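Data's thin. Show one?
=====
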Amino acid sequence: MSLLRTKSVEQSIADTDEPEFRLKKSLSAVDLTVFGVGVVIGAGIFTLTGRAAHDVAGPAVVISFIVAAIACGLAAMCYAEFASTVPVSGSAYTFSYASLGELFAWIIGWDLILEMFLGASVVAQGWSAYLGTFLQQIGIVLPEAISYGGVVDVPAIVLVLVLGGLMTLGIKESLRVNLVLVAVKLFIVLFVIIAGILFINPANYSPFVPDAVPTESASGLTQPLLQFLSGLEPATFGVGGILAGAALVFFAYIGFDVVATTAEETKRPQRDLPIGIIASLVICTILYCAVAIVVTGMVPYSELNPSAALANAFAFHGQTWMATVIAAGAVAGLTTVVLTLMIGATRIIFAMSRDRLLPGGLAKVHPRFRTPWVISILVTAVVALVAGLTPIGVLEEMVNIGTLSAFVLVSIGVIVLRRKRPDLARGFRVPFSPVLPILSALICTYLMLNLSVETWLRFLIWLALGFAIYFAYSRGHARLATGALLDPTTPKVV
């Protein structure tokens, strides 16, 4: 029972045809692109731009977004190659199982569960905050005890329950709602960009790259792991500030990888998955850069509000009504993010349950809706409880470290699978392999090292819990260990 036993690509694909576990194939390249844009563009476009410009990069934050997009694009190409080669639910978990082995697959699946559960919960709380702001601006005030930051965050719980019900009804139905909300979000973002152009003062772009200045460094468990290990003192602005800004805004792009979790429900996965992953990343990069140019042109970077840059940029010019529009856009935007993260979480658990690394009964597909309804209910319940009752705050970086660890393993897995199975048909191939996948893994590792020491400690505790479950249950019950077939009526071939 080797820890590095692999599940063949052929077996992974064959599992998708088992009647009891077959998902409905209904998604196109357009659906996947909308899905990707829906999860990537959230509150970050309204807040993160101002924070990066004010704190570390100045107007050169536009370059930070481009650098981050290039780094993220390398990982996106690795995901696109894997998704077109192994079109099965599970994303990085399934890819790792086929290339690196079961233990690595378990680790990455465990990390992705952390990323998507916490990510959906954190964003649901953010949605509640923006909803409260929007309602206040139209004259409605929610009781403090049951709103954002109260004893129970009722709006966040209601949102998760509604989206959970929608998710259970079907992936296509979910994406129809997602399409409408993404359209509203993009309309507001474009409106903000076009309206902001009227208030740009070219003098605000000078200096475009402010002179580098030393900055007060964090200490103890709050300092980045790289600083803790190397003793280097951080600096802001200048070229170093651009790179620091890239590390900060990189997390605004996280989410495109969720597209790969829908591989099994895509009509033509070899063609449509690479298009959906890469197209969503390109669209988001263009919008992020446009917002960065507008906001740093409207207000001097030193006067930007790091927490609500766009809304305050318009208030700076006396256009306070725009704050209502931006809050409405954030409410629509964050709804799509919660929905897509919850769908991603169900597909990861579905793939792990079908392989018996988690109890197989979870992977039951509803006979009418063709969705994993048991897992959908479980995910909805957990996310609703965490979003409604837990003050997450400090756990937000856990989302990032889970995602980046997945990026590293997928980048390495592309190289391994190329060497082990060069015969496989690949709808998309990463150019200049293995150079670009190695570069992707190194960049993602560097970004992980920029996360705080306390985040790494929490991550190690989560991994330890995962190892305990794997060795106590998953290793012995896995289908690769027992040889069990998904469909017991299918005869075993000797």
